[in-house]
Amino acid sequence: MATTDNDKGEDLIQATLAKKGYTEVSKLGEGGMGVVYKCRHADGGLRVLKFSRGDFESSEEAQALLEEGNQMRQLRHPNLVQIWQLIMTPTLVMLELEFLAGGDLHCRIHDPQGRPISSEILMIRA
After folding, report:
1. For the whole prediction, is pTM greater than 0.85?
2. Known binding positions for ATP
3. Binding site: residue ranges?
4. What backbone phi and psi angles, to 5 degrees, belong to 120?
């Protein structure tokens, strides 16, 4: 059976998870830009790992992505998901994020029919 690029990407992700010591790995979702997992970190805490695949060989693109990630890691606010680390290879970017229980953001800001909920209602819910 032939190995696809997607299989190679999944193998790289699984190898990265194992190397970094993450356990209890479960996939939360997948989209056009990558895949998201919920994992247990070596410190016992839950984390979300977001992997984006692409060609990150361009030094300008890679540098811009690293700078943005490092700036975002410094942000601290109760309404922002904490970014713990950013790991980058020539073909893969991994963001380690704080895990927040309660479902995905889309479900929290849209009604059951998928229509956006007004900001006034969201403020009352908070």
Report:
1. no
2. 50
3. 50
4. -65, -40
Distances (CA, A) of 84 to 32, 80, 99, 105, 116: 23, 12, 11, 19, 29
Helices (H), 2-101: 5-19, 59-73
Which candidate, 104, 112, 116, 114, places its Cα nearest to that of 36? Answer: 104
For residue 83, report the phi and psi dihedrals to the nearest 5 degrees: -95, 120
3-state helix, strand, coil in the chain (%, to 5): 35, 30, 35
Q: What pLDDT digit, counting tens, does each position of 71-110 carry?
A: 888 999 888 888 888 888 777 788 888 888 877 777 777 7
How many angstroms separate the CA atoms of 41 and 122, rounded? 32
19-39: pLDDT as tens digits: 888 888 888 888 777 888 999
